[in-house]
Design brief:
Length: 221
């Protein structure tokens, strides 16, 4: 079965190049193109692509905001971010809104094709440059956490705890992190046990007192 693709970039020449590259693959088919986030949302609803290949910087809504909406409204459609920008903030944000891949435009076509195939299978893929930066960032974060008041918590548990400290409900946390409410409840229970707290209020108080936002500054509501 061929993977149905939607290409989203505000430059027509870029879209043409991507179409030429991807339609040369026997298992891929470009079903539509879009130049803005709003147009992308409309075409996802109309064409139901398997994978959206999308730039970060678009007129109006950003590609990351579009990714969040696509994943909420069409959870079977995966999104691969294709961009010229490599930063911890962008990559972390992309993962939080449900992107299945983050690939730099400067890398070869093979990396993009591989990322699309991985996304189609429900896996997360990065090009080598992005992967190296993310590994370094995660190692740094883990080292900090091990020395902090939040020792023993995973990155995802830290993200949940940040949102708890902001007074978010399980439903709101689930929407923000693209998780089910049941999964969020499990995370909350695990955090309470690991930190030796009795309830959600104690968790929130503890997190604020120990300045959790300084440890996880990139978590957005």
């Amino acid at each position: 079965m061929r993977t149905r693709l939607l290409l989203v970039d505000d430059h027509e020449v870029v879209r043409l190049g991507l179409r030429t590259l991807l339609e040369a693959e026997p298992d891929m088919e470009v079903v539509a193109e879009a130049g803005t986030a709003d147009e992308a949302l409309e075409k996802v609803a109309r064409y139901r692509p398997d994978v959206v290949v999308m730039d970060v910087r678009l007129p109006g809504k950003s590609g990351l905001e579009a990714c969040r909406l696509i994943r909420q409204q069409h959870p079977t459609t995966q999104v691969v971010i294709l961009t010229s920008y490599l930063s911890e903030e962008f990559v972390s944000h992309a993962l939080r809104v449900g992107a299945a891949g983050y690939v730099l435009k400067e890398v070869g076509g093979t990396e993009l094709v591989n990322a699309i195939r991985s996304a189609r299978e429900g896996q997360v893929a990065f090009d080598p440059h992005t992967a190296s930066q993310m590994v370094a960032r995660l190692r740094k974060l883990e080292a900090h956490i091990e020395e902090s008041a939040f020792k023993g918590l995973s990155r995802r548990e830290m993200e949940v705890l940040v949102l708890i400290s902001r007074g978010k409900s399980n439903r709101e946390i689930a929407q923000t992190l693209s998780l089910s409410e049941g999964t969020v409840r499990n995370y909350v229970s695990a955090i309470i046990e690991k930190l030796g707290m009795r309830n959600r209020i104690e968790l929130a108080t503890y997190a604020v007192r120990h300045h959790i936002s300084e440890w996880m500054p990139d978590v957005e509501d």
